[in-house]
Amino acid sequence: MSMPAEKILIIEDEQAIREMIAFHLSRAGYETFEAADCREARHLLTDNRPDLALVDWMLPDISGLELTRQLKREKEYEDLAIIMLTARAEERDKVSGLEGGADDYITKPFSPRELLARIQAVLRRLNVSATEVVSSGVLELDMTGHRVLAGGNEIKLGPTEYRLLHFLMTHSERVYSRAQLLDRVWGANVYVEERTVDVHVRRLRKALTDASADRYIQTVRGAGYRFSTRDV
Ligand code: CA
Known about the structure:
By secondary structure, this protein is α/β, with parallel strands linked by helices. The protein is built from 8 helices and 12 strands. It has a 5-stranded parallel β-sheet, sandwiched between helices. α1 (15-27) links the parallel β1 and β2. The longest helix has 15 residues, at 112-126. The two termini are 36 Å apart. The mean pLDDT is 87.
């Protein structure tokens, strides 16, 4: 199974620069979205769930640094990688960019090749787990092979159950509401009912029953679901 293209949101008010970046990133195989200010960026973040955001420092509404600070504080964007674009070369600005939570920064003017190299490095660093195996209790999730093993035996899962298990295993010990799971596993621009989550949780538990791993998918009454290998 080939991995879907990684999504990159470009937040830059200078149209020529934004389009130039989008052109090079699309050509490199990334799916791109463009925003000219933070307000527009917020809509695109919610609807498209990008993997990485390129955030220009100077934006017309709020500064790119402030946006970065905000996003890094919000739980739903904890997995979003951020690279700041700055026209300022002073060291103190780079430092405050990184202190604001950016994963890297790049100083204008930059070459497309330099930008691509930074993007690849940041995504690789953040996705180390994507090339590895996550294990918890008797379960092993092999992300490169898209396989789930329980005590060494392969468990067959549908694509939604796989994504759901993947999300829960990589965010274990935390409770997620049905609405949050819909956003994170299905995507915010997909309109399905919350009980759809229950249907897939039920299927997932059924698939895990023989390995006695169904107990890891725990219902937290009135709140949602949690993955935990500890008993309730
Ligand atoms: Ca700007």
